[in-house]
Amino acid sequence: KNEVEQSPQNLTAQEGEFITINCSYSVGISALHWLQQHPGGGIVSLFMLSSGKKKHGRLIATINIQEKHSSLHITASHPRDSAVYICAADSGSARQLTFGSGTQLTVLP
Amino acid sequence: DTGVSQDPRHKITKRGQNVTFRCDPISEHNRLYWYRQTLGQGPEFLTYFQNEAQLEKSRLLSDRFSAERPKGSFSTLEIQRTEQGDSAMYLCASTPENTIYFGEGSWLTVV
Question: Which end of chain A lies in a sparser environment, N or C, as judged by fewer CB atoms within 10 Å?
Fold first, then answer.
């Protein structure tokens, strides 16, 4: 069992739909990151969460520390949101990250 | 550009050759990480520097791999005697306290 698991692995949505990507982790963490990776490799940090909820534009990230679960929500999805979304647990004293395998999101026009 | 930059972006090499990747982190970030990512997988931790000190190495980092960060600025990751299984994207990241910045990655193809 991976220490960080994401679901679903692949998600196709129609433009405008509300999207949820889930992340469960088994390690103790100091924070959880949500990252976005576009084709070609570049990774952008979307959120870093240690508790509660954060919102940035149409993106919302929540975390439940007791249940070791986090979700990334996208409201009013758009084709430009198509990317791989990765959650990563920040657990070590060296702040190394343990990554999930990613969720490939495709938003169709 | 003040982001994390990596060079080269793409490298094709023959099996058995040595390759070196360079990462220039954001200048005020003292923590620097190397990760490896293969297709369809999330990145895997390779090694971590705080300033010039290499503080942690993954068991994924075999003796063919070496990383340095002289003077605590740029870092290099060298792979000696490359194998086909080394084909992957090598990502560098640097961090201040509360977020992480990734480079664009260096794609390695070993043929």
Answer: N
Model pLDDT for residues B46-87, shown as the tens digit of each residue: 998 988 999 888 888 889 999 999 988 999 999 999 999 999
The whole-angstrom separation of Cα A69 and Cα A59 is 17
| 3-state helix, strand and coil shares in percent for chain B, rounded to the nearest 5 | 5, 50, 45
Q: What is the pLDDT of residues A77-90, one digit of tens each?
A: 999 999 999 999 98
Q: Which residue has the tokens 């009013």?
A: A76
Nearest chain B residue to A30, by CA: B98
Scan for tokens 């990480």, then name that residue: B33
CB contact under 8 A, B42 and A41: no
Please write down the HEC assignment for all residues of A10-24.
Answer: EEEEECCCCEEEEEE
C-beta of residue A72 within 8 angstroms of C-beta of residue A46: yes
Quick count: other Cβ atoms within 10 Å of Cβ A53?
12
